[in-house]
Amino acid sequence: MTMIIGTQEYTEFCRFLEAQCGIVLSDGKQYLVRSRLSPLMTKIGISTISELMQLIKAPGHTELKNNVINAMTTNETLWFRDVYPFKVLQSKIFPELIEKKKTIRVWSAASSSGQEAYSIAIT
After folding, report:
1. pTM for the predicted model, two decimal places
2. Rounded CA gap, 106 and 73, in Å?
3. Fewest CB within a 10 Å sphere: which of 24, 48, 61, 119?
């Protein structure tokens, strides 16, 4: 059975996710929510995002809330992951900063093994 996510419940879930961990989902990512949360929802015996939201908002469901956030987190690290930002760094941002003789300091968030940070340094 395919989980259907209505516009209102998708919006509510997106707000929750951004408030809890800073992940911003754009429109059209319902498939991602569906694919990542379906196994968890099946395991706990619920079938809608609305039911899930009610549970994670209720007191005493911290573990479930953490499981939802973990399910929505991309747990991968790659060299030059998402090529576009590195192209922009190389062709626009770094040259402008160098031209202005600005010190370049970069912070790479959520880099489990450092490949993203080293990719920035290599760029």
Report:
1. 0.63
2. 22
3. 24
